Amino acid sequence: MDSTMSRTEAAEPHRQTADDVLAALDSDPRSGLTQRQARQRLDRVGANALAAESPPPAWKKILAQFANVLVILLLVAALISAGLWLFERDSALPFEAMAIFAIVLLNAAMGYIQDARAEQAVAALQKMSAAHATVVRDGTRQSILTTEIVPGDIILVEEGDTVPADARLIEAVSLQMAEAPLTGESLPVTKAIAPIPSDVPLGDRRNMIFSGTAATYGRGRAVVVATGMQTQIGRIAGMLEGAPEETTPLQRELDKVGRLLGTIVVVIAVVMIATILLVENVQGISAIFDVLILGVALAVAAIPEGLPAIVTAVLAIGVQRMAKRHAIIRHLAAVETLGSANVVASDKTGTLTRNEMTVRVIVTASGRATFGGTGYDPQGGLSADGGAAVDGDQLAETLRALTAADRANNAALVERDGRWSVQGDPTEGALIVAARKAGLEREALDARFERVGEVPFSSERKLMSTVHSDGDEPGRLVVLTKGAPDVLLERCSHELAGNEVRPLSETRRGEIAALNDQLAGEALRTLGLAFRTLPEETAGTEAFDDGIEGDLVFLGLVGMIDPPRDEARAAIERAKAAGIRPIMITGDHPVTASVIAAELGLSDGRAATGAELEAMSEEALDDTVREVSVFARVSPEHKLRIVKALQRHSKTVAMTGDGVNDAPALKTADIGIAMGITGTDVSKQSADIVLADDNFASIVAAVEEGRAIYANIRKFLRYLLSSNIGEVMTMFFGVLLAEAIGLTAAGGGGFVLPLLATQILWINLVTDGAPALALGVDPADAGVMRQPPRPRGERVITPAMWAGILLVGLVMAAGTLIVLDACLPGGWIEGSGTIVYAQTMAFTTLTLFQLFNVFNARSDHTSAFVGLFANRWLWAAVGLSAVLHATVVYVPFLQAAFSTTNLGAADWLFCAVVASSVLWVREAGKFIGRALVQGSRPAAA
Fold first, then answer.
1. Among candidates 785, 337, 403, which has minimal Cα distance to 395?
2. How many CA atoms lie within 13 Å of 845's alpha carbon, on the beta-carbon side?
3. Of 76, 223, 496, 612, whose Cβ has the fewest other Cβ atoms within 10 Å?
4. Is residue 347 flagged as an active site residue?
5. Domain covering 358-561 in this structure, CATH number
6. Where are the CATH 3.40.1110.10 domain residues in the chain?
7. CA 453 → CA 301, 406, 445, 464, distances in Å?
8. Catalytic pick among 347, 768, 781, 860
9. Which residues fall within 8 angstroms of residue 280, CB to CB, at 6 or more apart?
10. What's the fold here for domain 327-353+565-694?
11. What is the DSSP string of 191-235?
């Protein structure tokens, strides 16, 4: 049996006859497998389930939180601090080490919680499979768990059933399958059993049904050829497992900043320690440890301890802002990545379009009429060419045609919670919506036309007919028929013109065929409508066959399409204005894709097909993705190749989609965006962002929000780093100029630090924290969507930002040391205070420097006084930081921990005046900068 199954797989079952496939699988089309055969095969091939990837153990997830340059540096500093405390015991507790460990653990905890929401795409794929399936075993129909299905099982599929495994059809009665989640095809696919001699894409394998797809019409019987990971869904799950986890630009840039800060720490510490050991008379272990204390203090000053936690917190705040704009963030770092995307590769069905078939055109003997509105909402007018009202003969013809469309129909239009939907075939649903738009109500049609018979649609006839009694003319039976226009025309002998029936000439047949071709060229799916009256002697007939589908009266043509979303065109224009290139990647037909793309202004209509991509080398594909913006009839493998080709061009790619077929590309793209309403669980779990309203326009809104959040991240980085550089310079020049500013004399001849390590830690973790978070919710700058995306290689901190950071740090250090000197005896400015008083004054001045600096940090170009009160959270944070600092200055047990003393009102005023200098110096620099670039638009933040 194993050998026969392998031959079946190798030969591809869609290319074989049904009998050959059954023989290869040793299965009977009527009795199916025996229970014994099924058990043996289940033992041999395994359960019909997808192989889920084993999650990493908890200890690996915890350790991963510490695999960051900044975190490692903090841990080293904390360990040194703890060791020094154990040696000296100069305080009740190791405050410095405890504080550092606390922030590291907090950051690790937040990261671990995020990892707990790890990808569950494989599990979501498993949920798509039906829990039970109907099979034939031992000649009887029975329901079994889908996990027990094996190759060779005969499965029965009816309308509404989800297919449990890939199978070759052996019987199909009007069977139509919804394969959009797998292939991207927006319309149900009509199935057949005839073999297909050539190798064709999944969407064209009409004799196959696939796991996870659903039957929308008819019924079928099939033999299972693949289960579990061997199914098409299983192949996608395998690709999904193998898709690499990409780090986002922010993560990469923060790692660069961490390495840079680490280098600064090492260089400054080595230089300072070497300088002290060479210049000062350092002898004994205690003195050497004092030098090491300086090294720890410099490390604390150079590293923004709160940076990892504040980044996470600001991104979390961004998540809430994005949710208000219908974008649900699954991964925090994706907030900023979307703002840097310069390519949006979008699926068509359900993303750019509504995934709701809509009748656009109806053509009758008197001309063409157009329907307004889109989707299943029965709102929208009916107008003739040129916008004129439909009236007279054209109105009569249109109403007769739409009556036939509504009655020869098995779908239902329902409204639930203000949302319209179709139960049944979407094409039939679209016909009902068109009838409602024309004013035909279901109750009136039901009352007049009672169905008494039906000839179901079949793929051989390509027609469907229903027979109705006519309440207005008792005893009269009416046949209403819809179907493929070319087939229907052959069955028609007359045409309705106004209220008269006239013979259908050959010339008129040619005209109708040409009109049908014209509609098809507009990417409209066409259907023909017709009717006839049955002879009176058939009134008592209980069963009807396709013999009634002759001598029909042609009513007209309807053209329908899955229309673009109303908001999509404006969203695409806005994306282009923001420097973002939209690309359509779909499994649908090239003509349909091109027409939709042209309507949306996405491209000039040129499309590349999956077959063309298959024949391309990587180099040719690289050239194609630069020029072509529409890709049609593509497979999941093609989507991955397109995304990777774009990434080879250094593009930051956002991929949108809603189906299973989108999952690998969503995973591989820099940012994956899934649809929240129509999207499958697989796409949602594979994505970084889920659109709650399935609206393409929400993507553009999310881009705007992402850019604003990234700008805010730069704001607090500017603030934190300039503050920390100020601390580093204060420590560096304080030790270097210790004798000149009176520190040496105050220390009895030995060297004394200008600030204690615990004081610097307090500034970094507490005083800096709240203002930095408040900058994270700063309002978006005007014109953020008129700027191009941030270049992929651009660092999060630009050279201009570094220049501003260094200037601010120098001003802070100079002001703080001037205050320190003025409070100590000796030095350039004579003072009379103690070392504790002087350090408290310096501590307070540096704190106030940073509170003034937070307003500078809002922009490198715009004055701090522009929109000064726009961010109330910033003012609250500044007030909170000032209060917290006051507690350290005045609360007794905190005075002991931080070596501070009480200050008077004059002391506070002196510190505030000196600290405000950073604001005025920076304002002067911004003014000069704006004057130099007068006439050009300043960058946002």
1. 403
2. 33
3. 76
4. yes
5. 3.40.1110.10
6. 358-561
7. 86, 15, 16, 11
8. 347
9. 750, 751
10. Rossmann fold (3.40.50)
11. P--S---S---GGG-TTEE-TT-EEEEEEEEEEEEE-GGGSHHHH
Q: What CA–CA distances, in Å, run from 405 to 177, 397, 484, 801?
A: 21, 12, 13, 66
Calpha distance 447→444 (Å, rounded): 5
Tokens of 501: 């029936």
Q: What is the pLDDT of residue 539?
A: 59
Q: 393-423 as b/e, with b when 16 or more CB fall inside 10 Å?
A: bbbbbbbbbbbbbbbbbbbebeeeeeebebe
Contacts of 516-523 with C-beta under 8 Å, sequence gap 24+, read 516/485, 516/486, 516/557, 519/361, 519/363, 519/557, 519/559, 520/591, 521/591, 522/559, 522/595, 523/561, 523/589, 523/591, 523/592, 523/594, 523/595, 523/596
Two structure tokens written together for 542: 């209980």
Residues of the chain with CATH 1.20.1110.10: 249-318+704-935
Q: Decide if 243 contacts 664 (C-beta within 8 A).
A: yes
Mapping DSSP to helix (H, G, I), strand (E, B) and coil, where does residue 856 land? helix
Report residue 601 CA to chain centroid gap: 22
* 419 beta partners: 416
Residue carrying structure tokens 């100029």: 737
Please name the residue that has the structure tokens 């501003």.
804
Under 8 Å between Cβ of 352 and 565? yes
3 state SS of 153 = coil
Which residues partner with 656 through β-bridges? 346, 673
Token couple for 395: 């109105």
Digit-coded pLDDT (tens) for 857-894: 888 777 888 888 888 889 998 998 899 899 989 988 77
pTM of the shown model: 0.65
Supply 934's token pair.
Answer: 């007068």
Domain with CATH 3.40.50.1000 in the chain: 327-353+565-694
Phi then psi for residue 136, to 5 deg, are -115, 115
d(Cα 331, Cα 349) in Å, to the nearest integer?
25
Residue located via tokens 């004059």: 906
Structure tokens at 609: 């097909």
Q: Which two tokens stand for residue 859?
A: 């922009």
Contact yes or no for 690/330 (Cβ under 8 A) = yes
Q: What are the tens digits of pLDDT across the range 726-777?
A: 888 888 888 788 888 887 665 555 567 788 777 776 777 666 667 877 887 7
**Regarding the domain delimited by 249-318+704-935, which CATH topology (the fold level of the hierarchy) does it fall under?**
Calcium-transporting ATPase, transmembrane domain (1.20.1110)
- In this structure, the strands spanning 358-364 and 367-371 are antiparallel
How much is the average pLDDT of 634-655? 88
